């Protein structure tokens, strides 16, 4: 089974940022309101994600590291309307097959916590007591230590760091109600408090996307027959041709989808842009039963039941908003 995990890891764990993504998703699924990330050497040496979520029961700790163990889907029907970010139950198993993983958790503030460790193929299933407040800490050391071929594909520390910084920012924009902290090589990089008011949310967007984006951004919020699109889009005056200032969320899940990308691009091009990269932070909310997120292991893509309706809604909503500020 450990070999199967390593094969699966090829799909889920491409680089440090893919580990961070899975760990953050688990923390959010666990209801955390505070997530602290620590990395060293671009995540290759160390990634540590600590949260204040619900924690994992002592008896479930070893199980959490085994393949297809997920606490999030009880029945097959649930696959039809997946509300949590994780649901495949293979992230921790995959990560632990190609790194040294320590999972420490506690489900209550009253008791002490428990810890379980796995290193490559040698799973050390024994539980050890470990002090931990309510919540979970996952520590991943020496990524790809036992798969040198995979390790060779990693880029410089700086490049890997930029990838994981990007992943954290994407998550930070998806959950304004959660505080995020990042430390790199033992130095604080950012610490974003929970944002509940509109002013606080706009402050976070400014922190993540830069004040220049927020200063000129157009706020939109459009709802029509069960679909809602809200967020911030750059005005024509915003002349920053950066592909990375494109954030799109479907029901809180960051996605990069052809259909969505096409609808957004078309709206921009139609109204005002000619070959420029549009910049936006947009949230689409749809009935969960009309969207399939189980398309790809990394879950960047989605499939809508009614493509045309979603495409037209995004296009016409943006078109309408942008046309009002046409230069
Ligand atoms: P999935 O998220 O697809 O269920 P994972 O391998 O990512 O699978 O995690 C396995 C299980 O471990 C989860 O279903 C969950 O029960 C538990 N788990 C992992 N991380 C956390 C966390 N930070 N807090 C609470 N439970 C967690
Ligand atoms: Mg998960």
Automatic annotation (TrEMBL):
It comes from the Bacteria. The keyword Protease does not apply. GO terms for cellular component: mismatch repair complex. GO terms for molecular function: ATP binding; ATP hydrolysis activity; ATP-dependent DNA damage sensor activity; mismatched DNA binding. One of its GO terms (biological process) is mismatch repair. Keywords: DNA damage, DNA repair. Residues 205-323 form the DNA mismatch repair protein S5 domain. This protein is involved in the repair of mismatches in DNA. It is required for dam-dependent methyl-directed DNA mismatch repair. May act as a 'molecular matchmaker', a protein that promotes the formation of a stable complex between two or more DNA-binding proteins in an ATP-dependent manner without itself being part of a final effector complex. Belongs to the DNA mismatch repair MutL/HexB family. This is DNA mismatch repair protein MutL. The gene is mutL. The chain holds residues 9 to 335 of 623 of the full protein.
């Amino acid at each position: 089974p450990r070999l199967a995990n390593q094969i699966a890891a090829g799909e889920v764990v491409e680089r440090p940022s893919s580990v961070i993504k899975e760990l953050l998703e688990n923390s959010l699924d666990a209801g955390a309101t505070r997530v602290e990330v620590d990395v060293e050497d671009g995540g290759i040496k160390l990634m540590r994600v600590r949260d204040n979520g619900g924690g994992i029961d002592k008896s479930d700790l070893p199980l959490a590291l085994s393949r297809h163990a997920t606490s999030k889907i009880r029945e097959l029907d649930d696959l039809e309307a997946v509300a949590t970010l994780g649901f495949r139950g293979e992230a921790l198993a995959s990560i632990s097959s190609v790194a040294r993983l320590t999972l420490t958790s506690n489900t209550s503030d009253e008791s002490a916590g428990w810890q379980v460790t796995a290193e490559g193929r040698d799973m050390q299933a024994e539980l050890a007591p470990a002090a931990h407040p309510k919540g979970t800490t996952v520590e991943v050391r020496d990524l790809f230590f036992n798969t040198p071929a995979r390790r060779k594909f990693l880029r410089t520390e700086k490049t890997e760091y930029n990838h994981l910084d990007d992943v954290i920012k994407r998550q930070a924009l998806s959950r304004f109600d959660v505080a995020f902290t990042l430390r790199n090589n033992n130095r604080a990089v950012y610490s974003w408090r929970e944002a509940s008011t509109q002013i606080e949310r706009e402050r976070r967007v400014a922190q993540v996307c830069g004040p220049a984006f927020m200063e000129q951004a157009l706020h939109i919020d459009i709802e029509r027959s069960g679909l809602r699109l809200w967020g911030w889009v750059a005005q024509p005056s915003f002349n920053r041709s950066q592909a990375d200032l494109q954030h799109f969320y479907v029901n809180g899940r960051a996605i990069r989808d052809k259909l969505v990308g096409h609808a957004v691009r078309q709206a921009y091009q139609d109204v005002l842009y000619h070959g420029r990269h549009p910049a936006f932070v947009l949230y689409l909310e749809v009935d969960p039963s009309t969207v399939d997120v189980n398309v790809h292991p990394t879950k960047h893509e989605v499939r809508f039941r009614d493509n045309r309706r979603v495409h037209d809604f995004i296009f016409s909503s943006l078109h309408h908003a942008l046309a009002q500020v046409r230069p």
